[in-house]
Structures are given as structure tokens and as C-alpha cells.
Design goal:
Elements: H1 2-10, H2 12-15
Keywords: Receptor
Protein name: Insulin-like growth factor type II receptor
Organism: Homo sapiens
């Protein structure tokens, strides 16, 4: 699921990681 990783990188708020 590489697409999810890229999506999270674009939305740090969603991931919770800076």
C-alpha cells in the first residue's frame, strides 16, 4: 500500500507524525 504512505506524507495531521 505505497499509495497510502504517500497520502499520509501529504497529510501529517492525519498521521500524527511531523
Amino acid at each position: 500500500k505505497a499509495q497510502i504512505t504517500e497520502s499520509r506524507a501529504a497529510l501529517p495531521s492525519c498521521v500524527g507524525k511531523p
